[in-house]
């Protein structure tokens, strides 16, 4: 697999622990991914640069709440706050809104995220009796596969579109969001990070 190749989501969901900063042992891969996080995602300069973006998204939330109050429409606070946070993150990483306050996409993505968290935290008898892992008696593995495959599929679509955009730009200067910075990083001659690493990193 080359650095810029994409595997099918259904083929890689079960090896997430081999790419996740949170699950990897302190080895060379972990150090490389940690460095990428420190320099491309959590760098002070990048966080300062996105301050105005975060303020914009909060103002959009306030405007939406005011409009709903004036029209007498009910407000699902949990949903609109999730949409605000999701769009703040997606604009920082991908320069795009992933959901709108009046769309179902926000709720669908929230259900995916909550579903993963629920399955990870659910007591699983197969964790205590490894012989039962293949049988998956509680269906935890099956449901987790579905959630991860859908999330990875969304990231796949975003990354493929960005790769096509970068290829059509014919070497012009890359954008300033996290995804472009990470893609530029893995294209370096001595880079030890692959596109598969980046995809899992975006799921952290």
From TrEMBL:
<dbReference type="Pfam" id="PF00067">
    <property type="entry name" value="p450"/>
</dbReference>
<dbReference type="GO" id="GO:0004497">
    <property type="term" value="F:monooxygenase activity"/>
</dbReference>
<comment type="similarity">
    <text>Belongs to the cytochrome P450 family.</text>
</comment>
<dbReference type="InterPro" id="IPR001128">
    <property type="entry name" value="Cyt_P450"/>
</dbReference>
<dbReference type="GO" id="GO:0005506">
    <property type="term" value="F:iron ion binding"/>
</dbReference>
<dbReference type="GO" id="GO:0016705">
    <property type="term" value="F:oxidoreductase activity, acting on paired donors, with incorporation or reduction of molecular oxygen"/>
</dbReference>
<dbReference type="InterPro" id="IPR036396">
    <property type="entry name" value="Cyt_P450_sf"/>
</dbReference>
<dbReference type="GO" id="GO:0020037">
    <property type="term" value="F:heme binding"/>
</dbReference>
<protein>
    <submittedName>
        <fullName>Geraniol 8-hydroxylase</fullName>
    </submittedName>
</protein>
